[in-house]
Design goal:
This protein has 240 residues and is an alpha+beta fold. It contains nine helices and six strands; from the N terminus they run αβαββαβαβαααααβ. It starts with 10 loop residues before the first helix and ends in a 5-residue tail after the last strand.
Length: 240
C-alpha cells in the first residue's frame, strides 16, 4: 500500500474541478485551464493556518477559505481544510459542505427591506416587548442578551442585532427572503419558508461557503448576480 503523500497543489480545488467535469459541459476535457491563482492559493493556505494557530487556545481546529474575483466570479483560491492530506477528514471540503451561516444572511434581509421602502435611517425596535408583536413562535435574543431600544437600520446591521433583523424579516416577508436567496444561488435551501421560520435571517438554513461568498459578490456588484467560474478554457480529445 502506497502511503498518502502530497502530489499536487490546491487539492480541494482539483477535486472540485474533476467533480464539475464528470457530468458537466466540459465532460471529456483532457486539459482544463483553470481560474486558480497559485500565488493567491498559497497565500490563502498560509492565512488560514495562521488564524487557526491564533485560535487554537479556543479549540478551533478547522476552517476553510475561498477567494473570488468580484468582477469575473473567477475562483482564485479554494482552501477546504487546513491540510488536505491529514487523516481522517482533511479531504472534506469546507467550502462546499453545508453549514448554518449565522448572521451572515442578515444583509440580504436588510437589502430586501430597502427594496420595500426602508432606508438606512429607518427606526427598528430592539425591545423586550417584541415577542408580543411577533406572531411567530420564535422569539429572538441578541448575542449580548441585552436590548438596545429603538435603533436605526444601519446600526442594527452594523451591530448584528438579532431582534431588529427578525422584526424586519416579518415586515418584508419570509417567502420574499427565501426567493431572494434562491435568486442569489442558494440552491441548497430546498425546504419551505415555514420550515426555516423567522430564524432564516439568523442562519437557520444550511448553505455552502462558496454560495455565500458569491452572494456577497453580488452585493459588491450592486446587486448583479453571476455564477462563479472555475475554468478559462479547455481542450478536448481532438485537440480543439
Amino acid at each position: 500500500l502506497a502511503p498518502l503523500s502530497e502530489r499536487f497543489a490546491a487539492p480541494h480545488f482539483c477535486d472540485f474541478v474533476v467533480a464539475q467535469n464528470e457530468p458537466g459541459a466540459i465532460q471529456g476535457a483532457v486539459r482544463i485551464d483553470t481560474t486558480l491563482s497559485l500565488k493567491i492559493q498559497n497565500y490563502a493556505e498560509n492565512v488560514l493556518n495562521y488564524h487557526l494557530g491564533r485560535l487554537a487556545s479556543h479549540h478551533v481546529k478547522d476552517g476553510s477559505l475561498i477567494v473570488l474575483d468580484i468582477k469575473s466570479g473567477d475562483i482564485l483560491a479554494m482552501v477546504g481544510s487546513p491540510n488536505y492530506f491529514a487523516l481522517p477528514d482533511g479531504q472534506n471540503n469546507g467550502c462546499l459542505t453545508l453549514r448554518q451561516p449565522g448572521s451572515t444572511l442578515k444583509p440580504f434581509t436588510y437589502a430586501l427591506a430597502l427594496q420595500h421602502g426602508f432606508t438606512a435611517a429607518s427606526i427598528l425596535p430592539d425591545l423586550s416587548y417584541l415577542d408580543a408583536i411577533l406572531k411567530d413562535a420564535f422569539v429572538p435574543e441578541n448575542y449580548d442578551r441585552r436590548f438596545h431600544g429603538p435603533v436605526r437600520l444601519r446600526q442594527a446591521l452594523a451591530c448584528s442585532y438579532n431582534v431588529p433583523a427578525v422584526y424586519t424579516l416579518q415586515k418584508v416577508g419570509l417567502n420574499s427572503l427565501l426567493e431572494l436567496l434562491h435568486n442569489l444561488g442558494f440552491t441548497e435551501l430546498k425546504d419551505s419558508s415555514q420550515h426555516y421560520g423567522l430564524g432564516l435571517t439568523l442562519g437557520s438554513g444550511e448553505v455552502s461557503l462558496l454560495h455565500l461568498a458569491n452572494a456577497y459578490r453580488a452585493l459588491a456588484q450592486e446587486g448583479c448576480f453571476q455564477a462563479v467560474r472555475f475554468y478559462k478554457s479547455y481542450t478536448d480529445s481532438q485537440g480543439e
